[in-house]
């Protein structure tokens, strides 16, 4: 990579952090490690960061609450790192704005692959930032805007106001809009969001759809995302679009 991407690790266990730091630095990343949420939050607020690896069980703050705070001012990619393996925790983590969820014990190499996946797409498409268009993340083709929605800097804008979508939410909504003539399965939407399809993760798509609808609701566009029971979701264009 031409410029080192900066990864922030917020993890209170030095052994876990050291292993991850070693793998990331060997691959050319700039890594900043913080043992508390307060220290990590202060750094993220004042510096350009490409991705955050965030432990849920921090000594000073719950990782879920810290994620919510970060989402108030930043759309940086966030990967939760936690010993919790319950499905409800994964759902909650993704609902509040995380892009991925990795459980301990984990392979540092697998984490490296997940991190590179989260950073790769924006890097490859950086030249298109600022353009007003709907971006197909798989083909990188552009298509006309639909309804009152336009794509700007990996978010969607409605009537001049940004929706504030997470990376996962943007990819899902973009996929639905760019394939509005088709019903897309949960598996197809997982693939569009760069999440490996699995039975345990498929229902998480429902949580992301719910979050997207909530962000569309103030603009009376929540019903644009329709459910096809037993199959998946599709985007319903307005008659005037």
TrEMBL record:
Q: Which Gene3D superfamilies match?
A: 3.40.50.2300, 6.10.250.690, Winged helix-like DNA-binding domain superfamily/Winged helix DNA-binding domain
- Residues covered by the Response regulatory domain: 6-119
Residues covered by the OmpR/PhoB-type domain: 139-237
Q: Which GO terms describe its cellular component?
A: cytosol; protein-DNA complex
Q: Name one GO biological process term.
A: regulation of DNA-templated transcription
Against Pfam families, the record matches this protein to: Response_reg (PF00072), Trans_reg_C (PF00486)
Residues bearing the modification 4-aspartylphosphate: 55
Q: InterPro entries from the xrefs?
A: CheY-like_superfamily, OmpR/PhoB-type_DNA-bd, Sig_transdc_resp-reg_C-effctor, Sig_transdc_resp-reg_receiver, WalR-like, WH-like_DNA-bd_sf
Q: Name one GO molecular function term.
A: transcription cis-regulatory region binding
Q: Which UniProt keywords apply?
A: DNA-binding, Phosphoprotein
UniProt KW Aminoacyl-tRNA synthetase keyword: no
Which superkingdom is the protein from?
Bacteria
Start-end of DNA-binding region: 139-237
Instruction: Name the PROSITE patterns on file.
Output: OMPR_PHOB, RESPONSE_REGULATORY
Q: What is this protein called?
A: Response regulator
Protein source organism = Shewanella fidelis
């Amino acid at each position: 990579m031409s410029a080192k991407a900066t990864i922030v690790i917020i993890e209170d266990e030095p052994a876990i952090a050291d292993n991850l730091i070693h793998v990331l630095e060997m691959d050319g990343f700039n890594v900043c490690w913080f043992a508390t949420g307060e220290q990590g939050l202060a750094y993220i607020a004042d510096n350009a960061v490409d991705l955050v690896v965030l432990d849920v069980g921090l000594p000073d703050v719950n990782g879920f609450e810290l994620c919510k705070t970060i989402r108030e001012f930043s759309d940086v990619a966030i990967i939760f790192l936690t010993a919790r393996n319950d499905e409800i925790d994964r759902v909650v983590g993704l609902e509040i704005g995380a892009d991925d969820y990795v459980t301990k014990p984990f392979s540092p190499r697998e984490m490296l692959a997940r991190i590179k996946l989260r950073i790769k797409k924006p890097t490859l498409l950086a030249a298109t930032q600022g353009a007003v268009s709907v971006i197909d993340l798989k083909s990188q083709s552009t298509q006309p805007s639909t309804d009152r929605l336009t794509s700007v800097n990996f978010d969607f804008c409605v009537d001049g106001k940004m929706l504030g979508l997470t990376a996962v939410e943007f990819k899902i909504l973009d996929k639905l809009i760019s394939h509005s003539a088709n019903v897309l399965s949960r598996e197809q939407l997982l693939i569009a969001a760069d999440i490996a399809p699995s039975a345990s993760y498929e229902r998480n798509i429902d949580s992301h759809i719910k979050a997207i609808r909530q962000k569309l609701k103030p603009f009376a566009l929540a019903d644009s995302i329709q459910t096809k029971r037993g199959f998946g979701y599709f985007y319903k264009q307005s008659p005037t679009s």
